[in-house]
Amino acid sequence: MQQLRLFESGRSKYLDVDAIQRRIHADVAGGTHPNTVIYSEFDPVYTAGSRTADADIPNEDVPIVRIDRGGSVTYHGPGQLVAYPIVLIHGRQDVVAYVRALEAAVMGAVAELGVQSQRVDGRTGVWLVRDGVPDRKLGAIGVRFSKHATMHGLALNVHPKLHDFDRIVPCGIRDAGVTSLAELGVDASLAEIADVLHPHLDRQLVRFQAPVEVTA
Length: 216
Hints:
Blueprint: E1 2-5, H1 14-29, E2 36-40, E3 45-48, E4 64-66, E5 73-76, E6 80-86, H2 95-112, E7 118-120, E8 123-130, E9 133-146, E10 149-157, E11 177-178, H3 190-205
Parallel strand pairs: 1-2, 3-4, 9-11
Antiparallel strand pairs: 2-6, 3-5, 6-10, 7-8, 8-9, 9-10
């Protein structure tokens, strides 16, 4: 898959990246652009997916951007690597299998960095588990399939300010917290993490990808 690394030009506004994502998605779905992963780092923003409940946003003063992905409300901001794989899907559109593949890619990447993470039954994302109980979430996932191509993706906490999650109920989960690679002892830049993550995304998502013959 191609890469578009927006974070190398600095932080981006969420709606600017969303507009880029939608243009590329239309081209990938139309067969005029190769499968692409957009990597970005956002200015602080709270986004709410289709499963967001009013109780997930207890502070009415928090500005929320409503978007068309799955999942509940989350925070994006400096120090967090956001990856949007835009992939033309081959065959059946299995959203659950695709989400599991994104989780596997993140777990494989952070394992290279010495962090052992897990899936949790009934909860999307990548977790640290203590004594068999979900303890802290390291990576969040929210996706959408449209016109046989994927949108949105994952957010991996590299070195964000974790207190910025405190204004919401992240992903609608009240009995666990959030963590970051930095909190777990990994000192790395977003570029370094993207370098580690991308091959894992390539390996995990190849089975979903339809052959793309880009037309002019």
